[in-house]
Amino acid sequence: MPEELYEQEFEVSGGNFSNAGGVSTKIKAVLKQLGVDPGIIRRAAIASYEAEMNVVMYAQGGRMKLTVSPREVEITCEDRGQGIANIDLAMQEGYSTATEEMRELGFGAGMGLPNIKRNSDLFEIASQVGVGTKLRFLIRTSVAS
Questions:
Q1: Domain count, the chain
Q2: Global pTM?
Q3: How far lies 56's CA from each of 27, 39, 79, 91, in Å?
């Protein structure tokens, strides 16, 4: 674990399924290099992949920011996209607005946001229709003393 704050930002291209998963793979590699516990890395990799895929599927593009401190891994994801009209509905397992083409590629099971929340100790979401969505999730790496 880093003794100081570590930050890195990543661009996510909307609609670019050929590079989908690239950012979450980079985040996983950074966390390994920083010596983060494998269980924390797994949770962060799942949550960041789901967030990245939502940008790829539903936005023109976005940015993900990884912040690692001795106590937590925090990831924010902000996109320029269609936004989410009903967050409560979108948080329900199985709810999806994926197109038929996305489903044919194996995406759109409606587990993205629920998986992010399930793998996070703190999950925040804000969205504006026609503007985009911002997610913030963190995973604690140690118990506060």
A1: 1
A2: 0.93
A3: 16, 26, 10, 18
pLDDT of the residue at 65:
98
Residue 145 lies in a domain: no
Helix, strand, or coil (residue 53): helix
Q: Please give the helix or strand (H or E) that residue 100 lies within, else none.
A: helix 100-104
In a domain, 1, yes or no: no
How far is Cα 145 from Cα 137, in angstroms, rounded to an integer?
21
SS3 category, 76: strand
pLDDT at 145: 42
- 122/109 Cα distance (integer angstroms): 23
Residue 37 domain boundaries: 6-140
- Read off the pLDDT of residues 83-111 as tens digits, 9 standing for 90 and up: 999 999 999 999 999 989 899 888 888 89
Q: Sorting pLDDT into bands at 50, 70 and 90, what band is 78?
A: very high
CATH classification of the domain holding 73: 3.30.565.10
